[in-house]
Structure formats: structure tokens, C-alpha cells
Write a structure and sequence with these properties.
Structural class of chain A: alpha/beta
Structural class of chain B: alpha/beta
Largest interface: A-B, 19 and 23 residues
Number of strands of chain B: 5
Strand order of the largest sheet of chain B: 4-3-2-1-5
CATH topology of chain B: Hypothetical Protein Ychn, Chain: A
Radius of gyration of chain A: 12 Å
Largest sheet of chain B: 5 strands, parallel
Distance between the termini of chain A: 21 Å
Number of helices of chain B: 5
Strand content of chain B: 15-25%
Number of domains of chain B: 1
CATH architecture of chain B: 3-Layer(aba) Sandwich
Oligomer: heterodimer
Number of strands of chain A: 5
Shape of chain B: globular
């Protein structure tokens, strides 16, 4: 049973990414949306956390939410995959269930 | 695939309603079915037709109504959450002796059973919120 974890809050605001990473299973993936995309930006104190996460899990970020915040795709942590809404829908179908860390 | 959608956040709080609208549109575009959108907690504020944002801002309530009409989507507002926040349809107006109602087109007020049913009947339940 695989789970797609969506995270919609910045790691500078809440610890939902940290909470997620503590309990995530091997077969699960993470999708960063809304303010959650800030976790994917390189050069922050959370970059190493995400760098470690991409070694063991697929980590995705919602492209439209990156550009809505003026963030560029080349400014994100290596190994994080950018998806659009079509990709978001595909990820939901690909994993057995979706867990939103609200 | 059949999707159930739950929305826990008001239309202008952060971004959840907009994300959900985009997700629902993309899912329909990809040929999936939206079994139901259930508005819970502050999410019930998506369902009042008295919402009047500035003309150059997104009208999220209208966007739901239009999407529902175009694709025949069931938009359900939680009754207990709605009563607390003053979201009223004709039936609730009569039942609670109110002087008017404000439910937006395409929305209906019902109970939590509708969320449970969406969870059972849908292949995936996706929650958007704060």
C-alpha cells in the first residue's frame, strides 16, 4: 500500500514536512504544493533535509505553485521533480491513497 | 478513476480552494470522474452566493458553480459547519426560522454521511485545506 503525501505549508512556517518524513514508508512519495514548495528551494536550512529525502523517496513539486511565487525550476534541490496539475492527478492515481498534511 | 474531494478551508484564506479547483479541472480533463466535492469546516464558505470579491479578483464561488453546472458535479456543504457559519439554503431557512438564504447555485447542504459515502464510493479521496 503506497501513499502520496501532499505538503502545503512552508517548512519555515510549520513542521509538516518533518512530521511526514518521520513516518513515511519506503514505497511512498511526497508532493510539495502551495507554500510547501519553499521546502524544495536550494540554499536554505531545509535543503539538506530534502536532499536526503530524494535519496530514498520520489519528491515532486507543483510547478504552477513555484512560478506563482516567482521561484525558478533551476533554483530547486537536485532530484526534486516538477509536475503540473496533470502530473498531480497522475500521482494521485499512481499511489494507493493520498494523505494531506494539513 | 473516481475522485472524492474534501475542502476544509475558506475560499480566500490561503490557496486550498484554488488548488482544489485546478485539481478537479485537471482530473476531468484527464477523463476521471468527480464523485463529489465535500465542503467541511471553513470550507463551507465556498458555498455562499453573497461572496463579492473585487472584479479583478478570482470569484471562487462562481468558479465552483460554473464547474458544477458544466460537468454535473455534486457540491455538498456540511450542515453543522454551515449552521455555525451562516450558510443557509431554503430548507435550513425554514427549519431554523431565518429571514433569508445564501446558498450558491450548484451547492446543496447535507450531512457527514455524504463525506463517508464519497470515501467509500471513490477510488481516491483527496483533501485540501489549511
Amino acid at each position: 500500500m503506497s501513499t502520496l503525501h501532499t505538503i502545503n505549508k512552508s517548512p519555515f512556517d510549520r513542521n509538516s514536512l518533518g512530521s511526514c518524513l518521520r513516518v513515511i514508508s519506503d514505497s511512498d512519495a511526497i508532493l510539495l504544493i502551495e507554500d510547501g514548495i519553499y521546502a524544495a528551494t536550494s540554499g536554505t536550512i531545509f535543503s539538506d533535509v530534502v536532499k536526503a529525502a530524494v535519496q530514498s523517496h520520489s519528491v515532486y513539486v507543483l510547478g504552477p505553485d513555484l512560478s506563482a511565487r516567482g521561484m525558478k525550476e533551476d533554483g530547486i534541490v537536485e532530484g526534486v521533480n516538477v509536475v503540473d496539475y496533470e502530473g498531480f492527478v497522475d500521482l494521485v492515481t499512481e499511489y494507493d491513497k493520498t494523505n494531506s498534511w494539513l | 478513476m473516481k475522485f472524492g474531494i474534501q475542502i476544509n478551508e475558506g475560499p480566500y484564506t490561503h490557496e486550498a480552494s484554488t488548488t482544489a479547483l485546478n485539481f478537479v479541472s485537471a482530473a476531468i480533463e484527464a477523463g476521471h470522474e468527480i464523485f463529489r466535492v465535500f465542503f467541511y469546516h471553513d470550507g463551507v464558505n465556498n458555498g455562499t452566493r453573497y461572496t463579492t470579491p473585487p472584479q479583478d479578483d478570482r470569484n471562487i464561488v462562481n468558479a465552483w458553480s460554473e464547474l458544477a453546472e458544466k460537468h454535473d458535479i455534486d457540491l455538498v456543504v456540511c450542515v453543522a459547519a454551515a449552521q455555525r457559519r451562516g450558510i443557509v439554503d431554503e430548507g435550513e431557512q425554514e427549519r431554523n426560522g431565518k429571514d433569508g438564504n445564501n446558498i450558491a447555485p450548484g451547492f446543496r447542504i447535507s450531512g457527514l454521511g455524504q463525506l463517508i459515502e464519497a470515501g467509500i464510493q471513490s477510488d481516491r479521496l483527496v483533501v485540501f485545506g489549511d
